[in-house]
Amino acid sequence: MTIETITKRTAPSRTNDPEGTKRNIIEVATKEFAQNGLSGARIDEIAAKTKSSKRMIYYYFGDKDGLYLKVLEDAYSRMRMTEAALDLEDLPPAEALAKLVRFTFDHHNGHEDFIRLVMIENIHHGEFLAKSSVIQKLNVTAIDAVRRLYGRGVEQGVFRAGLDPIEVHWQISALCFFNVSNRATFSQIFKRDLGSRKSLDSLREAVVEMVVRHLKAD
C-alpha cells in the first residue's frame, strides 16, 4: 500500500475549510466537556453536533484526550489574549489593579464553561494541563503582567513590599472563580439570587476593594 493510498483513506474529505472545521469542533467540544467532564463526553455526540465526522475529529486531534487538551488550550488562550489587551501599563498601579480584577470577575462570570473546565481539570489533578507547553507559557505571561504591575506600585509607594505576585494572582482568581463555581449552592442555601445584576455588581466591587486594599501601602 502506498503512502498516497493511506493518506486518501485517512484524511478528512468533507471540508474545504479545515481551520473553520477545527474551530467548530472545539466550540462544540468545549460545551460537551464542560457539561459532562472528560469521562462523560462522547466523540459521537460531538461529531453529531458539528459540521464534521468522528473520523475527522480523530484525524485533527488524535483521540478524545487530544481534543480535551486542545479545548483547555483554547479556553486559556482566549482568556489571556483578552487580558493582554487591557493596556494596564498605561494606568496608575491602583487603577490598573482594579481594572484587572474587574476583568477577571466579568470574564469568569461570562464564561461558565471555562470555570467548569478548570474544575474538571482539577479533578484530574492538572494532568492534562501539565502536558501543555502552550498553557504553561500563557500563565507565565499572566504572572509577568501581575509582577510588573505590582512592581510599579511598590516603586511608586502605592503598594506595600514583600508580596508574592503568584499569590496575588491566586487571590484574584480565587475570589472571582468562587463567584461562579459556588453560586448555585450559595444561592440555594441562603435563598438569594447571587447571579442577579444587583448582586454581581456588589460582589464585583467588593472583590476589587479587597484586593486593592490588600496590596496598598499603609
TrEMBL record:
UniProt KW keywords: DNA-binding
DNA-binding region: 42-61
Keyword DNA-binding in annotation: yes
Record's signal peptide: none
Domain HTH tetR-type: 19-79
Matches recorded under SUPFAM superfamilies: Homeodomain-like (SSF46689), Tetracyclin repressor-like, C-terminal domain (SSF48498)
PROSITE patterns the record matches: HTH_TETR_2 (PS50977)
Biased composition, class Polar residues, residue ranges: 1-15
Cited Pfam families: TetR_C_29 (PF17938), TetR_N (PF00440)
Classification via InterPro entries: Homeodomain-like_sf, HTH-type_TetR-like_transc_reg, HTH_TetR, NicS_C, Tet_transcr_reg_TetR-rel_C_sf
Domain of life: Bacteria
Region (Disordered): 1-21
A molecular function GO annotation: DNA binding
Protein name: TetR family transcriptional regulator
Native source organism of the sequence: Microbaculum marinisediminis
